[in-house]
């Protein structure tokens, strides 16, 4: 699956059939100024979705090196790779 990185969020469409579309968002497209430890899976043009967010890392700065983004604090770490 190929991800596109835009406004601190990764986007992918593992299934692009208009009748059965699946979209994946890692980060939060509604907050482009920061990357958040969240994954959202959407169906039918976001008529139905589920999102999972790691709340313990909400205000931790992130780093991005090449195609790898990470958030870290003392005993928790979240890594997103493209």
Write the layout of secondary structure elements.
Elements: E1 4-6, E2 9-15, E3 22-26, E4 38-43, E5 48-53, E6 62-65, E7 68-72, E8 77-81
Antiparallel strand pairs: 1-2, 2-3, 3-4, 4-5, 6-7, 7-8
Short structural summary:
It is built from no helices and 8 strands.
3D architecture notes:
- Helices cover 0% and strands 50% of the residues.
- With 82 residues, it is mainly beta.
Structure annotation, total helices:
0
Helix content: under 10%
List unreliable stretches of 5+ residues: none
Residue fraction in strands: over 45%
**Helix-strand makeup class:** mainly beta
User: What about the largest sheet?
Assistant: 5 strands, antiparallel
Overall 3D geometry?
globular
Span between termini: 9 Å
Biggest sheet, spatial arrangement of strands: 1-2-3-4-5
Mean of residue pLDDT values: 79
Integer-rounded radius of gyration = 13 Å
Order of helices and strands: EEEEEEEE
Tell me the number of strands.
8
Which structural traits does this protein have?
8 strands, globular, three-stranded antiparallel beta sheet, mainly beta, 82 residues
């Amino acid at each position: 699956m190929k991800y596109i990185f835009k406004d601190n969020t990764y986007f992918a469409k593992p299934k692009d059939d208009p009748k059965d579309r699946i979209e994946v968002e890692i980060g939060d497209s509604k907050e482009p100024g920061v990357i958040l430890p969240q994954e959202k899976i959407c169906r039918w043009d976001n008529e139905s979705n589920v999102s999972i967010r790691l709340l313990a890392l909400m205000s931790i700065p992130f780093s991005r090196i090449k195609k790898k983004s990470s958030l870290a604090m003392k005993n928790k770490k979240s890594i997103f790779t493209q």
